[in-house]
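RECORD TYPE: inverse folding
INPUT: structure tokens
STRUCTURE:
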């Protein structure tokens, strides 16, 4: 920078002539006491905890949906197999009734009843086939397989013993992630409150600067041109303190 002091000053540099002035400054600022500083970090930690709980809830709900859809497929498959077995028996009954009626050992009303029972089973089979297709599609969608060409499941519909179920859960601490979410959000709310109110409370700040000033460029490399200072500043909000009540 080029400077020039007024000649009316008794201490004018270079007799009031223009001169070069070189300066470089390094300034560091460090908060010493700021209310709500650690509360802000706690808010971030609570967000991380909430994200983990959301993931845990999503994994649990997805697992339940997969299990429910899986056993629904098995149930619909079992229902279809049972109806087809009943249809086979009804067809055999119709054939037997026809033979008995043809040799005069059966009545026509028995044959009509057997055919009626066979006709009533067919809509149930079609409904069971449709239910099996729908449940299989639901399972494939949950597993991320859209419009699969084939989908096979392997399992058995066996009711577990109550004693084994109780033994499995014995000694395990029960927990509900949704309840933990409420507690974490409550703690996060308190931390956010501290962050907001921190702006209305006094703060202490340390500022330090290191500079080199010289009239010649070559002197900028000399340590004799060093200058430093440190400042400890206390900020006390006086007029906006009542705003904390509204916030």
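DESIGNED SEQUENCE:
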């Amino acid at each position: 920078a080029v400077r020039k002091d007024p000649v009316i000053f008794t201490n004018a540099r270079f007799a009031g002539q223009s001169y070069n002035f070189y300066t470089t400054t390094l300034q560091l600022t460090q908060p010493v006491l700021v209310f709500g500083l650690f509360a802000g970090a706690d808010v971030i930690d609570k967000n991380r905890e909430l994200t983990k709980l959301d993931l845990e809830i999503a994994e649990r709900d997805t697992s339940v949906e997969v299990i429910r859809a899986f056993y629904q497929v098995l149930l619909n498959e079992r229902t279809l197999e049972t109806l087809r077995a009943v249809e086979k028996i009804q067809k055999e009954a119709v054939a037997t009734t026809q033979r008995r009626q043809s040799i005069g050992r059966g009545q026509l009303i028995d044959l009509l009843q057997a055919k009626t029972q066979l006709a009533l089973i067919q809509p149930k089979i079609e409904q069971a086939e449709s239910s099996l297709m729908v449940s299989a599609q639901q399972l494939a969608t949950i597993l991320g397989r859209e419009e699969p060409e084939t989908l096979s499941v392997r399992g058995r519909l066996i009711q577990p013993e109550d004693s084994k179920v109780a033994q499995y859960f014995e000694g395990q601490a029960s927990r509900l992630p949704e309840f933990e979410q409420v507690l974490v959000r409550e703690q996060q709310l308190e931390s956010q409150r501290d962050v907001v109110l921190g702006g209305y409370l006094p703060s202490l700040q340390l500022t330090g600067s290191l500079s080199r000033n010289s009239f010649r460029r070559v002197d900028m490399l000399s340590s004799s041109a060093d200058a430093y200072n440190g400042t400890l500043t206390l900020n006390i909000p006086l007029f906006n303190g009542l705003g904390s009540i509204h916030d």
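NOTES: Strands lie at 2-3, 19-20, 22-34, 203-214, 226-235.
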